[in-house]
Design a protein that fits this description.
Elements: E1 4-7, E2 10-13, E3 18-24, E4 33-39, E5 46-51, E6 58-60, E7 68-73, E8 78-83, E9 92-99, E10 116-117, E11 121-126
Parallel strand pairs: 2-11
Antiparallel strand pairs: 1-3, 3-8, 4-5, 4-9, 5-6, 7-8, 9-10, 9-11
């Protein structure tokens, strides 16, 4: 079983920055495609960003393009989400997820593509 633990959430003013981390208890971490999702109260969980096994390819939800950057360090079994120019609309619980890659890669933005999930970290953006 793969355990994922997020950290780095908190309270930040609009326009500020945060960096989220997701540490995996799996030394074959490089075999997994990784992603970030978020969920605000009363809303469905939505895709934020994804990254390929080697980190060479990334994808983003349109609303965060140019502001968020996903990256990974396979030597540290960790994936990151750098969030800049934060807006109140970014307030949510952020979850990291891992995929074994047995499903078509074109479905990377769907929750069912992912096999393992972290418990989430709260990000609150104030005005």
């Amino acid at each position: 079983q793969v355990q994922l633990v997020e950290s780095g959430g908190g309270l930040v003013q609009a326009g500020g920055s945060l960096r989220l981390s997701c540490a995996a208890s799996e030394r074959t971490f490089s075999n997994y495609r990784m992603a970030w999702f978020r969920q605000a109260p009363g809303k469905e969980r939505e895709f934020v960003a994804a990254i390929s096994r080697g980190g060479g390819n990334t994808a983003y939800q349109d609303s965060v393009k140019g502001r968020f950057t996903i990256s990974r360090d396979n030597a540290k079994n960790t994936v990151y989400l750098q969030m800049n120019s934060l807006k109140s609309e970014d307030t949510a619980v952020y979850h990291c997820a891992a995929s074994t890659g047995l499903t078509a890669v074109s479905r990377y933005s769907e929750m069912r593509y992912y096999d393992y999930w972290g418990q989430g970290t709260q990000v609150t953006v104030s005005s």
